[in-house]
Design goal:
six-stranded mixed beta sheet, 2 domains, Phosphorylase Kinase, domain 1, alpha+beta, transferase, Ser/Thr_kinase_AS, globular, Transferase(Phosphotransferase), domain 1, Prot_kinase_dom
Length: 421
């Protein structure tokens, strides 16, 4: 084989009809004349930068990024548009909360609905009147946005009825929550109670798990009662209605904790000036709830609020005659209903360490591996008769009202079977 000589290479280069590039010749000569691998790499990089265009930068979700050298024709946000009041319609009245009534809404089948949305999804919406919120803001400034603020700060938990969104119109504020269809725990106690020790232990373990989650996040419920506990379709319990919730940061004064909650479930320190420990008021209410599970009655019932408050301050209650209650069950109720805050169970010692709860496997309870003693048969709320009247359309101007068929309209056929707490 004949190798090219310098002279032949020079002649063939000079006789070539290809256009000469002076810049390239200078770059190659500079590489050949320089010594060392580092200088050669730098020269090759500088030569490549003249011909290779830089990668195109775009913004996706507000963050800069590269598209791999090519720009897509249009950058589309894959997330669906946020849900608003126009995409909801009211189909039912569920009940009343601490600061407003609760409605059942479903998503509408709109023509511009995103494919990721599910028409017919059900949510619970708490309607708060702006005029009423102004009055509350004058008396209790910290309670105005308490529920929305506290729920938005919480991570999702099966023990808490979580918030989905918040809206407003010219008259109301709307707080959209997860819909739990099986009713409240108060109705379960009244219809299926009193419970035996095993059933009460299961439900009270649910309550303990929920309260420990809230207190671990620094939140005090302050209006804990069976009416504010919802029953999930699997039979487990979920805490709801955070209208009076507060952070346990010690910043509030004693007057901000006075007379907060429902009279039958108020702790003694809420009735008069005492040293408050925050979570103690919830554990007192949990003790009242446990007593109700066993006896189907309140331990401090009275014909008026003055008598109720006197019995709470004295801390005296009696077990019904003829009811067999174990010593450990009486002990946990007595520890929760201790009038001295510093000695109350849950403040002085952990509730989890009480002997009455020794048989509970808390890891199984957290993941829902226990079989509930009662699985509710929940009817379809979109097809059953309305047991409460729907609000007027002018009262909820931002939320469309769905008129039910005649056979499902509310007609006040059933009287009230229990007082509203």
């Amino acid at each position: 084989m004949r190798y090219p000589t310098p002279s032949s290479t020079k002649l063939s280069s000079e006789g070539s009809p290809v256009t000469k590039h002076s810049s390239r010749r200078i770059s190659i000569e500079s590489v050949a004349s320089s010594k060392g691998i580092h200088s050669r790499k730098q020269a090759l990089k500088s030569r490549a930068s003249r011909y290779d265009p830089p990668p195109v930068r775009i913004k996706i979700h507000g963050l800069p990024g590269y598209t791999g050298g090519s720009l897509p024709p249009d950058v589309v946000d894959p997330r669906p548009p946020p849900l608003n009041l126009d995409g909801l319609e009211c189909i039912r009245t569920l009940g009343d909360g601490a600061c407003g009534h609760v409605l059942l809404v479903q998503t509408r089948d709109c023509p511009n609905l995103d494919k990721l949305d599910r028409p017919g999804s059900l949510f619970a919406v708490k309607v708060l009147s702006k005029e009423r919120m102004k009055l509350i803001d004058r008396k209790h400034p910290g309670d105005t946005n308490a529920e929305r603020t506290r729920l938005s700060e919480l991570p999702w938990s099966p023990w808490v009825n979580g918030v989905v969104g918040a809206f407003q119109d010219e008259l109301n504020l709307y707080l959209m929550l997860e819909f739990i269809p099986s009713g409240c725990f108060h109705d379960v106690i009244q219809t299926r109670g009193p419970f035996n020790a095993a059933t009460a232990r299961f439900y009270f373990a649910n309550i303990i798990a929920g309260l420990y989650f809230l207190h671990g996040e620094g939140i005090i419920h302050r209006d804990f009662k069976p009416a504010n506990i919802l029953v999930r379709p699997d039979g487990y319990l979920t805490i709801a209605d955070f209208g009076y919730a507060r952070l346990d940061d010690g910043s509030g004064t004693s007057t901000e904790w006075l007379m907060i909650g429902t009279p039958l479930y108020m702790a003694p320190e809420v009735l008069c000036y005492q040293h408050l420990t925050g979570c103690s008021v919830d554990w007192w209410a949990a003790g009242v709830t446990l007593y109700e599970m066993i006896t189907k009655r309140s331990p401090f019932f009275g014909t008026d609020e003055d008598k109720i408050f006197k019995r709470i301050e004295a801390g005296r209650y009696k077990w019904p005659k003829g009811l067999r209650v174990g010593a450990s069950l009486k002990s946990i109720v007595a520890g929760l209903l201790n009038t001295k805050v510093e000695d109350r169970l849950g403040v002085d010692t952990s509730v989890l360490d009480h002997p009455w709860l020794d048989n509970i496997d808390w890891d199984k309870m957290q993941v829902g591996r226990y079989l509930a003693p009662w699985i509710p048969e929940t009817p379809e709320h979109t097809r059953t008769w309305l047991n409460k009247a729907l609000p007027k359309q002018h009262c909820i101007p931002g939320l469309q009202l769905s008129i039910p068929p005649m056979h499902r309209e509310w007609d006040d056929r059933l009287p009230k079977s229990r007082p509203e707490y």
